[in-house]
Design a protein that fits this description.
The complex is a heterodimer of chains A (257) and B (195). Chain A is of the alpha/beta class. Chain A has 10 helices and 12 strands. Chain A has an 8-stranded parallel barrel, surrounded by 7 helices. About 2% of the residues of chain A have low confidence. The chains are: A alpha/beta (257), B alpha/beta (195). At the A-B interface, helix 3 of A face helix 1, strand 8, strand 9 and helix 6 of B.
Chain lengths: 257, 195
């Protein structure tokens, strides 16, 4: 049976993992390659590496890191952060990434999704959607945000999810800026709605604080995968324990060992 | 031992090379017919779209070379599909090593396509699955699949049962990505290299 995926996310700056609390205060959680290898060994189903360095130098450091990760781990991994062109994607895939995640660039230029999926195949194009429940003149709406969730757009989240699928995205990484960093649980209703509208897998992100939150996002939230960062980095939840917990509750998960 | 990875236009095969590096196997990445024919083992990987890949193989003549190979050949993902007779992906005539047609997953509410993620394979009848635990989990990403047929040596289920692995004479194939399928995938690659 196809299993629900557990995905640790590693925010990377200068080759090291950092995790922002609400994307601002950064704490260091260690070497990005070692941490990834440990997660793979512990039964993580996939990894996501996000490059949060903005400089040109940082970009080449990141590609070198991608190469080291690909050499080391034997599970799929996605890379993202500042990707805006076919040549960016080509360099990252060539370095050994299995998928790339695009975010702000897809909002700026939605045709990029079509171009990338045509060039590299939908299977490796993840569109990241950062969303926040926002007061508009029509009342509260889920709106897409860019620039690490800081900049609101006028794009409504659910139609955008459908659009990215139609343009050729292979997967959606949905981050709720309302729940991110809170440890109060994923945005279940929104995730379920997006997952119900899109016929491609949805990775839920933002808000995981305990093992029940993962159970909820896979059942009520209808997510295909659950992503979290700090709770894994700081060992608040160990992946083998989480897998066992979900397995005991009859959710299909990949048990290793 | 000389292992060749066939070079063609079907996407990025970097992770296959890294996986061989981890096993400690050396390899040559080439589209040269002499090199391919003289190899002990041939790996035919790929990600991408069937008709584009098949057109390329025809253009460079590999569509005739691959089916005529006598040494063990291992096709993975789109490589496996191109070894079948026909693919519904843009109605593509393929190489016909396995006499079976590749079909798109039927649309069923709640069953997303592509079939993406870790799923278990079962009913092994292949040396490639040697030492693998029952119901091993491997990583799939595909929208088209070969139904279970006489060449099926491992099956999987998503919407319908389908062929996870095919085998006929010296030709071996896997629908999933061994190179990123954890220890199970690594074992399958080692088993192929040890044939």
């Amino acid at each position: 049976m196809l299993t629900k995926r557990i995905i640790p996310c590693l925010d990377v700056k200068d080759g090291r993992t950092v995790k922002g609390i609400n994307f601002i205060n950064l704490r260091d959680a260690g070497d990005a390659v070692e941490l990834g290898a440990m997660y793979a060994e512990h039964g993580a189903d996939e990894l996501v590496y996000l490059d949060i360095t903005a400089t040109i130098d940082g970009r080449s450091t990141f590609i070198e890191l991608v190469r080291r990760v690909a050499h080391t781990i034997n599970i799929p991994f996605t890379v993202g952060g500042g990707i805006s062109s076919i040549s960016d994607v080509s360099a990252l895939l060539h370095a050994g990434a299995d998928k790339v995640s695009i975010n702000s660039a897809a909002v700026r230029n939605p045709d990029l999704i079509n171009e990338l999926s045509l060039e590299f195949g939908s299977q490796c194009i993840v569109v990241a959607i950062d969303t926040r429940y926002t007061l508009t003149e029509n009342g509260h709406e889920h709106l897409v945000h860019t620039h690490g969730g800081r900049k609101p757009t006028e794009i409504r989240t659910i139609p955008w999810a459908k659009e990215v699928e139609e343009r050729g995205a292979g997967e959606i990484l949905l981050t709720s800026m309302d729940t991110d960093g809170t440890k109060n649980g994923f945005a279940l209703e929104l995730t379920a709605t997006v997952s119900g509208h899109a016929n491609i897998p949805v990775i839920a992100s933002g808000g995981a604080g305990n093992m029940d939150h993962f159970y909820d996002v896979f059942t009520t939230g209808k997510a295909d995968a659950g992503l979290a960062a700090s709770i894994f980095h700081f060992r608040e939840i160990d992946i083998p324990d989480l897998k066992k917990y979900l397995n005991e509750r009859n959710l299909p998960v990949r048990m290793t060992k | 031992m000389k292992t060749v990875i066939i070079k063609y236009n079907a996407g990025n095969v970097q992770s296959v090379m890294y996986a061989l590096d981890r096993i400690g196997a050396s390899y040559l990445y080439t589209d040269n017919e002499e090199e391919i024919r003289s190899a002990d083992k041939v790996i035919f990987p790929g990600v991408g779209e069937a008709s584009t890949a098949m057109n390329y193989l025809r253009k460079v003549g590999l569509d005739k070379v691959i089916p005529s190979l006598k040494q063990p050949v291992f096709g993975t993902c789109i490589g496996m599909q191109l070894m079948c007779r026909f693919s519904e992906e843009n109605n593509t005539e393929c190489m016909g090593i396995f006499d079976v047609d590749v079909k798109r997953f039927p649309a069923v509410p709640g069953m997303k396509v592509p079939h993406m993620g870790w799923n278990n394979i079962m009913d092994y009848k292949t040396v490639l699955a040697g030492d693998l635990p029952d119901n091993a989990y491997v990583y799939f990403v595909h929208s088209y699949a070969a139904p279970v047929c006489e060449y099926t040596v491992a099956s999987c289920e998503y919407v319908l049962p389908f062929s996870a692995m095919l085998q006929k004479d010296n030709f071996y194939a896997a629908q999933f990505h061994c190179e990123i399928s954890g220890n199970a995938g690594q074992k399958i690659m080692e088993n192929f290299l040890n044939i």
